[in-house]
Amino acid sequence: MLTRALFFGFFLVLISTKLWAETDSAQRLEDVQAEIQSLSDSLDKDKKARSTLYKQLKKQSQAVSQLNRELRDLNQQLAQKNKELEQLEQAQDDFRQSHAKQLGALSTQLRAAYLTAQPHYLKVFLNQQAPAKLSRSSTYFHYFHAARQTQLAAISDSLNTLDNNKEALLAARQQQQALYEKSQQQQQNLKTQNKQRLATAKKLDKRVNSQGVRVASLKDEAQALRDLLQSLAQQKSVKSISKQPFASLKGQLTWPVNGKVIARYGSSRKLGKLTWQGIMIKSVAGREITAAAVGRVVFSDWLRGFGLLLIIDHGDKYMTLYGNNQSLLKEVGDTVNAGELVALSGNQGIKQYAGLYFELRHQGNPTDPVKWLGKRS
Fold first, then answer.
1. Domain 217-371, CATH
2. What is the dihedral of CA 352, 64, 55, 356, to 10 degrees?
3. Residue 235 contacts by C-beta under 8 Å, 6 or more apart in sequence?
4. In sequence order, what are the residues at sequence separation of 6 or more whose Cβ sits closer than 8 angstroms to the Cβ of residue 165?
């Protein structure tokens, strides 16, 4: 009986242990599943947060581009107005000198007439003198009077011109002041927008801080560019803007900006197996970016990973891409010539790089742009 009791007790212990182990395993499985769900929710929230930040960055970058563009236009208008002011002031000085000379000549003439005691024309006419002498005197006085009237008319015109110039100068100075004040306000707005854009970029950097997220992000950006190019390729392509086929320009394209190539085509991006599809040309922010060849602008906007991006279609399925800009100066549909200003360089798209990101693609496929660019002057 004792043996049976012991066996039965041992059997109960085994069953209890098994049941406890199964309960513990089930609990662990539930915990793991809960943790996976929590991580998934966290990733979804992070993606949404990053998406929101990207949208903010796009909006702020577009605002910065527009402000830069307007500020550039204002500065050009201001320079033109300064030039007009200089011309008006020079004209004013010239008229003052001319006016002074006219007054001096009239003064000299009147003084000479007084010293030679020239009588009044009516007095000479009433004097009883020989007809020949009277005729000569009449003729002299007629010339003298006509010359004096001409000088007086010229002086009157000069005075009117001086008055008109003063009014024009006043209006030009008022316009200049208004342009200057608007320029100052735009500069302040630009500082504010740049500050906001920088703050957004920093927040984004904190969320894209791990190598895995950065690699995934770069792959998404590359895919976004491929999708964009595929969409552009489906549009009506430029057939022939230049008489010379684009393929014949290999080794002759204009450098879009002078600077050191700090990232070469095909080199590693030091993130997994990712490589550069174009080149990075080092440049300070705000430097002028020019078109590599004649073509038509088919994209002019912000794109994730490339910042403010301009794409030019050169025909024959060739396109050049200009990314990482501070401001875009051309719109979709604009025709541009080789060497024409199209953008201002910046650091608003590709992390840790200041300068221009430049790509050349044929049928959507990237190719080494350095082989296409000509010698730098």
1. 2.70.70.10
2. -40
3. 298
4. 88, 91, 92, 95
- pLDDT digit of tens for each residue in the chain (377 aa)? 545 555 555 555 556 666 555 666 555 555 555 544 544 445 556 678 778 888 888 888 888 888 888 888 888 887 887 887 788 778 777 777 776 776 777 677 666 666 554 555 555 555 555 555 555 555 655 666 666 677 667 666 766 776 677 777 778 778 777 877 877 887 788 778 778 877 887 787 777 676 677 778 788 888 888 888 888 888 766 555 667 899 999 999 999 999 999 999 999 988 778 899 999 999 998 899 999 999 999 999 999 889 999 999 999 899 999 999 999 999 999 999 999 999 999 876 666 678 999 999 999 999 999 999 998 86
The position carrying tokens 């403010």 is 308
Rounded Cα distance, 286 and 221, in Å:
24
Query: The tokens of 339 are what?
Result: 């060497």
Task: Look up residue 123 and give its amino acid.
Answer: K
Token pair in block for residue 54: 């990207």
Range(s) for CATH 2.70.70.10 in the chain? 217-371
CATH of domain 58-205: 1.10.287.620
pTM here?
0.68
